[in-house]
Write a structure and sequence with these properties.
Blueprint lengths: L12 H31 L6 H4 L3 H10 L7 H17 L2 H14 L9 H11 L6 H10 L3
Helix pairs in contact: 3-4, 5-6
Length: 145
Protein backbone atom coordinates (compact mmCIF):
# COMPACT_ATOMS: atom_id res chain seq x y z
CA UNK A 1 0.00 0.00 0.00
CA UNK A 2 1.26 3.48 -0.93
CA UNK A 3 0.82 6.33 1.48
CA UNK A 4 0.71 9.88 0.21
CA UNK A 5 1.17 11.50 3.55
CA UNK A 6 1.20 15.33 3.25
CA UNK A 7 0.54 15.38 -0.52
CA UNK A 8 -3.20 15.03 -0.11
CA UNK A 9 -5.06 17.38 2.14
CA UNK A 10 -8.59 17.02 3.35
CA UNK A 11 -8.74 20.76 4.06
CA UNK A 12 -10.45 21.99 0.88
CA UNK A 13 -12.57 24.59 2.61
CA UNK A 14 -9.94 27.33 2.41
CA UNK A 15 -9.21 26.77 -1.29
CA UNK A 16 -12.90 26.78 -2.19
CA UNK A 17 -13.53 29.94 -0.18
CA UNK A 18 -10.54 31.69 -1.76
CA UNK A 19 -11.68 30.61 -5.22
CA UNK A 20 -15.16 31.99 -4.59
CA UNK A 21 -13.73 35.30 -3.39
CA UNK A 22 -11.50 35.54 -6.47
CA UNK A 23 -14.38 34.78 -8.81
CA UNK A 24 -16.63 37.33 -7.14
CA UNK A 25 -13.87 39.94 -7.24
CA UNK A 26 -13.24 39.29 -10.92
CA UNK A 27 -16.97 39.43 -11.69
CA UNK A 28 -17.21 42.69 -9.75
CA UNK A 29 -14.32 44.24 -11.68
CA UNK A 30 -15.88 43.21 -15.01
CA UNK A 31 -19.27 44.52 -13.91
CA UNK A 32 -17.80 47.85 -12.84
CA UNK A 33 -15.91 48.14 -16.16
CA UNK A 34 -19.14 47.42 -18.02
CA UNK A 35 -21.05 50.12 -16.14
CA UNK A 36 -18.26 52.70 -16.49
CA UNK A 37 -17.88 51.92 -20.21
CA UNK A 38 -21.61 52.28 -20.78
CA UNK A 39 -21.84 55.57 -18.89
CA UNK A 40 -18.77 57.04 -20.62
CA UNK A 41 -20.05 55.98 -24.05
CA UNK A 42 -23.66 57.01 -23.52
CA UNK A 43 -22.85 60.38 -22.03
CA UNK A 44 -20.08 61.17 -24.50
CA UNK A 45 -17.67 62.02 -21.72
CA UNK A 46 -14.60 61.18 -23.79
CA UNK A 47 -14.16 63.18 -26.99
CA UNK A 48 -14.04 60.20 -29.34
CA UNK A 49 -15.04 61.22 -32.87
CA UNK A 50 -13.18 58.83 -35.12
CA UNK A 51 -15.83 58.88 -37.85
CA UNK A 52 -16.29 62.65 -37.96
CA UNK A 53 -12.57 63.33 -37.84
CA UNK A 54 -11.79 60.93 -40.67
CA UNK A 55 -14.11 62.61 -43.15
CA UNK A 56 -12.30 64.19 -46.10
CA UNK A 57 -13.56 66.22 -49.06
CA UNK A 58 -13.08 63.18 -51.29
CA UNK A 59 -15.09 61.00 -48.90
CA UNK A 60 -17.92 63.54 -48.68
CA UNK A 61 -18.09 63.96 -52.48
CA UNK A 62 -18.02 60.19 -52.87
CA UNK A 63 -20.85 59.88 -50.38
CA UNK A 64 -22.89 62.49 -52.26
CA UNK A 65 -22.30 60.66 -55.54
CA UNK A 66 -23.37 57.42 -53.91
CA UNK A 67 -26.72 58.84 -52.82
CA UNK A 68 -29.60 58.39 -55.30
CA UNK A 69 -30.93 61.89 -54.59
CA UNK A 70 -28.97 64.35 -52.47
CA UNK A 71 -31.20 66.46 -50.25
CA UNK A 72 -29.45 69.02 -48.07
CA UNK A 73 -29.76 72.45 -46.50
CA UNK A 74 -28.28 75.46 -48.36
CA UNK A 75 -25.25 75.65 -46.05
CA UNK A 76 -24.57 71.94 -46.64
CA UNK A 77 -24.63 72.56 -50.41
CA UNK A 78 -22.07 75.34 -49.90
CA UNK A 79 -19.81 72.92 -48.02
CA UNK A 80 -20.29 70.32 -50.75
CA UNK A 81 -19.32 72.89 -53.41
CA UNK A 82 -16.10 73.63 -51.51
CA UNK A 83 -15.48 69.87 -51.22
CA UNK A 84 -15.97 69.50 -54.98
CA UNK A 85 -13.44 72.30 -55.53
CA UNK A 86 -10.93 70.58 -53.24
CA UNK A 87 -11.37 67.25 -55.04
CA UNK A 88 -11.09 68.98 -58.43
CA UNK A 89 -7.86 70.69 -57.38
CA UNK A 90 -6.37 67.39 -56.22
CA UNK A 91 -7.56 65.37 -59.23
CA UNK A 92 -5.35 64.21 -62.04
CA UNK A 93 -5.64 66.79 -64.87
CA UNK A 94 -6.59 64.01 -67.31
CA UNK A 95 -9.59 63.07 -65.13
CA UNK A 96 -10.89 66.56 -64.28
CA UNK A 97 -13.10 66.85 -67.34
CA UNK A 98 -14.88 63.58 -66.60
CA UNK A 99 -15.20 64.52 -62.93
CA UNK A 100 -16.65 67.92 -63.84
CA UNK A 101 -19.11 66.24 -66.22
CA UNK A 102 -20.38 63.87 -63.53
CA UNK A 103 -20.61 66.76 -61.05
CA UNK A 104 -22.63 68.78 -63.61
CA UNK A 105 -25.12 66.00 -64.45
CA UNK A 106 -25.56 65.17 -60.75
CA UNK A 107 -25.93 68.85 -59.81
CA UNK A 108 -23.44 68.79 -56.97
CA UNK A 109 -22.54 72.45 -57.50
CA UNK A 110 -26.08 73.63 -58.16
CA UNK A 111 -28.10 72.38 -55.23
CA UNK A 112 -28.93 69.00 -56.77
CA UNK A 113 -30.21 70.39 -60.08
CA UNK A 114 -28.40 69.02 -63.15
CA UNK A 115 -26.59 71.66 -65.22
CA UNK A 116 -27.39 70.36 -68.70
CA UNK A 117 -25.83 73.23 -70.68
CA UNK A 118 -22.57 73.02 -68.74
CA UNK A 119 -22.62 69.22 -69.02
CA UNK A 120 -23.07 69.38 -72.79
CA UNK A 121 -20.12 71.79 -73.14
CA UNK A 122 -17.93 69.59 -70.93
CA UNK A 123 -18.96 66.51 -72.87
CA UNK A 124 -18.05 68.13 -76.19
CA UNK A 125 -14.75 69.28 -74.66
CA UNK A 126 -13.98 65.65 -73.87
CA UNK A 127 -14.55 64.76 -77.51
CA UNK A 128 -17.35 62.31 -76.86
CA UNK A 129 -19.62 61.47 -79.80
CA UNK A 130 -22.99 61.76 -78.07
CA UNK A 131 -23.47 64.84 -75.93
CA UNK A 132 -27.18 65.41 -76.47
CA UNK A 133 -29.62 65.63 -73.56
CA UNK A 134 -30.80 61.98 -73.70
CA UNK A 135 -27.18 60.76 -73.57
CA UNK A 136 -26.44 63.06 -70.61
CA UNK A 137 -29.59 61.90 -68.83
CA UNK A 138 -28.42 58.31 -69.31
CA UNK A 139 -25.05 59.30 -67.82
CA UNK A 140 -26.89 60.80 -64.86
CA UNK A 141 -28.88 57.58 -64.35
CA UNK A 142 -25.76 55.39 -64.62
CA UNK A 143 -23.78 57.56 -62.21
CA UNK A 144 -26.27 56.78 -59.47
CA UNK A 145 -26.17 53.60 -57.40
Amino acid sequence: MVEFGDLVSDDRGDDTARTRVRRRTLAGVYGAALVVGYVVGAEGILPVSVVAGASTPLARVGFALREPQVVAKPEAWAHLRSDVEAVRAAANPDERGTFDLVVAVRGLESGGHPEWTKAEALCRGLGWQRCDRPALEELERRSRP
